[in-house]
User: What shape does this take?
Amino acid sequence: MNRLTRTAALAAALMATCLLAPGTTAHAASGDWLSLTLTRPGTTGGGTRTALLLCDPPQGHPKAAEVCAELSAAEGDFSRLGDSATLCPLIYAPVRASAHGRWNGKPVAYDRTFGNACELGAATGSVFALEG
Assistant: This one.
């Protein structure tokens, strides 16, 4: 997806969120928000999941409150998320995680492919747990 398409999709998602929840307008314009995408290459029928995470109040993600707390504790720094002591199997089933938005007034651009879902969870906590 190119940058223009991604920006248009994000704008549409923000507009839909604001129309569905009128109280989120000011937050979406000035607060912490992330557009999250999880892709499982090579899968058919539902290989991509997306969410627009808002944190005041937590919404737009199956585990919004937990994710907002994790991101707040890490001050929005993805390298401080997760649990580095987690041991994962050496099974190659790649997952691509990306996040774009704003956190603590700073732009966020995160894009990384992991060897499997365990590695993703170990590195990012609940942030990309988009499947409910």
Remarks:
- Strands lie at 33-39, 48-55, 58-59, 95-103, 106-114.
